[in-house]
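U., I forgot to send this yesterday:
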Amino acid sequence: MKYSKLFLAAGITAVSAIILSVACKKDNASSTPANNTTPPPASGPQLIFVFKFDSTQARLNNLGQPDVMPAGHSGESPVFNGMSSHYIELAPTATTQLGNGDVLYRAPEVGSGSNLAIDFSKEVIVNAGVPFYSCAISSVTPGSYQYLRVSLAYQNYTIKWAYPPLVTSAPGTIASFVGFNTYIGSYKIKDSTEIVNANKAQGYWGFEDPYNTVTGQAPATTVPNPIAATSPIPAGSCVVTGQFATPFTVTGNETVNDTIVVSLSINKSFEFTDPNHTGIYEPLNGDSVVNMGIRGLIPMVK
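Result:
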């Protein structure tokens, strides 16, 4: 880890090959909005995507099954400040392979091959309830879709930390890069700015409290996929999969907007080692970040 003042290569190549093979007919890199802006409106009835962050939603593992906190670990359900996505796909069935559904969006990328990376400077970062993508429903292939796949890229949230007895509980801010690989020029955690000018693999993070800024690399990132047995995702990707309660149907004759709420489980999604069993992150007492992956996705149509 680095202190400042007061996807594996194979996985990346697999992800890039899949995504590039489905040259997105809805959006491309040149048309994607700049960082922290919402997409421009398109004509006709819209399909709108918004995030919801739910600390009570089931906490799932990579296979979409209920997960138990390992012994010696603790977790916190953070307060989100913003999230961005890299890829959106509607999948008709549980056997639809990644990239073979209706791909609606792919964020801007730089590089190629094993150096392919998400361009952080052009990510759309929003909080809950704010549209992070929209398109004309007429551009969606008519059909019935059982699953939604969203590749998450970046998250920023507030957690509690401690350094007893001097600090028993105080807020700190995490900036976490969960996409398969991200080119970062610079990024702002809360008040401090980190200069990177390099690609960073999935799991890179920065933490800011009132006294220090710390950066590190989480060894794992959970990416729930309940249809992994029939439609797997490449190792190192962050394509989270969720099933609609009833299939989402597009007829091609829609006259009003549809909104898909991408409800993400943040149930103890900030996971860390906790040798003292205090239940609060104590970075100066040996606690280390283990996992910052989202713990499930439920798509809901409004």
